[in-house]
Amino acid sequence: MGGRRRIVTTNLVIAEVHSLLVRTSADTGVRFLDRLYSDPRHEVIWASRDLERAAVDRWLRPFLKVRFSLTDAVSFEVMRLQGVKRAFSYDRHFVAAGFEMVPE
Q: pTM for the full model?
């Protein structure tokens, strides 16, 4: 995996990570946001109402037994729309949705 790659995420994922980090300290949460927003490799896609509705229709309704979160579903829909096949994640829901996880 040579070279620097673009990292695509959503504001919902950022909110979840920030929420976990502020449990350690508020400063840690703010430093995370500062680094993320200053790194040009990171593209943050904001979950619009239309994107959320598409995620509900494509990922939440058909997969009720899997119990994806809204954050997962929006991430999957963004990946689908952008043609992204691999996710840096430890969440096995990405595999259940048909994506590859890095690390495996």
A: 0.87
Q: For domain 7-102, say whether CATH 3.40.50.1010 is its number.
A: yes
Contact in structure between 102 and 85 (CB atoms under 8 Å): no
- 45-68 pLDDT tens trace: 999 999 999 999 999 999 999 999
Q: Token pair of 20, please? A: 């976990």
Long-range CB contacts for residues 48-53, cutoff 8 Å, separation at least 24: 51/77, 51/78
